[in-house]
Structure formats: C-alpha cells, structure tokens
Specification:
two-stranded parallel sheet, 8 helices, single chain, three-stranded antiparallel beta sheet
Length: about 180
C-alpha cells in the first residue's frame, strides 16, 4: 500500500461527517502500486478480512466493495462468485460502483497510530499537517504494523526505504520496538 484513508462513500448527500453520515457507509480508500500488488490480491485480502455471508445491520457499517471501472467490477464479481461456491452460500457483501469519497475527520485517520503519543510526536514534527500525515506512506505502514499486520523486521526495512528525514526511521523504530 502506498497510502490509506478512512472516510465515507456510497451515499448521495455531500460532505458527510461521522455525526451526519446520512446514507453513506464508512470505508477505506487505498492507493497501491499495481506493479507490487494486484487489484485481485487486494480483493482477496478484502474477502479474507470480514465475514462476507453476514447480514449487514446498518448502512453505515455494511460490507461493501466499491469498484472504479469495468475491469475492477469483473474481478470483484469473479472473486465473489468463487467465494460463494466455496462457502456454498450467499455472499452478502455488496459490490457497488465507486462514488465520491469524503475523508473522515482527522481523529479517525491512522487510529492505531494516534493512540501512541511518542510516535505521533515524531509524525507531528515530520508533517505538522493532518492531510500530509494522513497521506503519508510511512504513517500508513506504521499504522498497519500497530494493527498486527507485519513484523518488526519488515517494518524496519520499509521505513528505511520511505525517504523519511535523516534519523526519523531510527527514532520511529526505537519507539516501536519498545512497544511490542
């Protein structure tokens, strides 16, 4: 992943917020490099990360995959149908055309990372701006790691390759290695 953002999509009313979600759903927006990971692989990870057979209890928290073009739609349909055959049941996850994505409020972005004051102090020094922090590949990678996705050596290798200012990767790793 290059970067991730959480927000709201799938609805018809402009500028939703967490307290005024209207007909939108909470969602994650992912920027990725197709030379490193395919859309199909991302969709497979998506299917593995939730129960596709469960009935949604609200539009806000429904399971949905929003596709951006016909190729993505075809992959979504194909993988859904394979999964339904494997489960021998109905997949209730919705497949929908992407609509405008609205970023969630700053306090929702990089939630796991925000709970670590020392790490946030480093990122505040690096970026100072909430949008730059949210769009940071380093913040996305570290947030994922804090959510138990990856190993400490993997993170260390990634941070060294993220073009951070001198010493920032070592500072982040020193804090993280004491946390886990």
């Amino acid at each position: 992943m290059i970067r991730t953002r959480v927000g709201y999509t799938g609805g018809t009313i402009a500028d939703p917020t967490y307290t005024r979600l209207y007909d939108h759903s909470e969602a994650i927006q992912i920027d990725y490099d197709p030379a490193l990971i395919s859309y199909e692989k991302l969709v497979e990870i998506f299917w593995e990360s939730h129960d596709p057979a469960s009935q949604p209890w609200s539009k806000q928290y429904r399971a949905a995959l929003f596709y951006h073009d016909e190729e993505q739609k075809g992959i979504a349909l194909e993988t859904r149908d394979r999964l339904a055959a494997k489960l021998k049941g109905k997949v209730r996850t919705e497949l929908l055309p992407a609509s405008e994505f609205y970023r969630a409020e700053d306090y929702h972005q990089k939630y796991r990372l925000r709970s670590h004051r020392a790490l946030m102090a480093v990122f505040n020094d690096l970026y100072g701006d909430s949008a730059a922090f949210t769009d940071s590949t380093a913040a996305a990678r570290l947030n994922g790691y804090l959510g138990s996705h990856g190993t400490l050596p993997d993170l260390e290798g990634e941070l060294k390759n993220l073009d951070l200012p001198d010493g920032a990767d070592e500072k982040l790793m020193a804090i993280v290695s004491g946390k886990r």
